[in-house]
From TrEMBL:
This is histidine kinase. Keywords: ATP-binding, Kinase, Nucleotide-binding, Phosphoprotein, Transferase. The keyword Kinase applies. The keyword Nucleotide-binding applies. It comes from Ciceribacter thiooxidans. Transmembrane segments: none annotated. GO terms for molecular function: protein histidine kinase activity.
Amino acid sequence: MVHRLTWYEPQRGDEYLREFFISGLIDIGATLILQDMEGRYSCITTLPARFRLTDGEPPTDTSLFGEEIGSRLADLKSRLEQPGDHAEMEIDAGDDTFFEFRCRMITMANGRNNLMTIVIDRTEDRRRERLLRALLREVSHRSKNLLAIIQSIASQTARYSGSLNSFLGKFRGRLHALAQSQDLITDSSWSGAYFRDLLQQQIEKYVQDGAADLIHVTGENLLLTPNASLHVGLALHELTVNAVSHGDFVATRQRIEVTCERIREDGRDSVRITWTEPLGQSDEEGQAGSARFGSTVLERVVPASVNGSAVHQVRPGFVYYELTFPLEAEG
């Protein structure tokens, strides 16, 4: 038998087809209801567990779905006047469940008109929609934060750059550091980035000639919030670039000691990050005056952005940086 785009073998029998259709309806989360034009039910398949059939009584829209939904469903069906007419509605059934009702007037093989109602569980669809909206809001929020950081970097870099070439070199490096941190945050579905991953990014890019082992890390590999990840990544960029450009740890084969630890401060969990870099006499002056924006980032921009505090010292024999901020700080 061929009818439009539907075909089946009549000899298979109704029982075979009934199992096929019911299995399909269960799989897609759909209910099929058939009524005559007086509203009497002749078939209900795969009714959602939320709705109940009453034993010993013929089903009605009200007994199946309750007063409110039954009333709305009756109004929807009253708009169907000719075969082929159809109408739809989506209802909130409570307890965070949602269903779509599709009603259509059809003509059966015996020539009589009937009302067909398809009920589709849209709960998961609505949850996905809410999640998507939340993610889009998060993207918007993160984008605005990132643009504000970039604006600050551009302004401060320009302030302390003596030439266009100097500005472009520093600005590109800092943007790349932000981009790397953002990649880690995105890969974690915006849960943040681990401290050692942030540091490793900078080591891989700037520390060459097999000197990566000279940066020694101890303490905890803490997961930082997205906002903290961006700014800690920027601080590590400044420290690493200054160490490579103006320090002598590679030439002297002296280790830079980096720590990250969880501490308790002011009644809350906090993060303390330290950087201790050996410094030769000939390099102290270069480190102290090499990159005033580096100092601005390390001493002002980063700690302010994570609601923390910082200590940055260039002393005879070493460079010391300490950043402390709440573990859950977010911007």
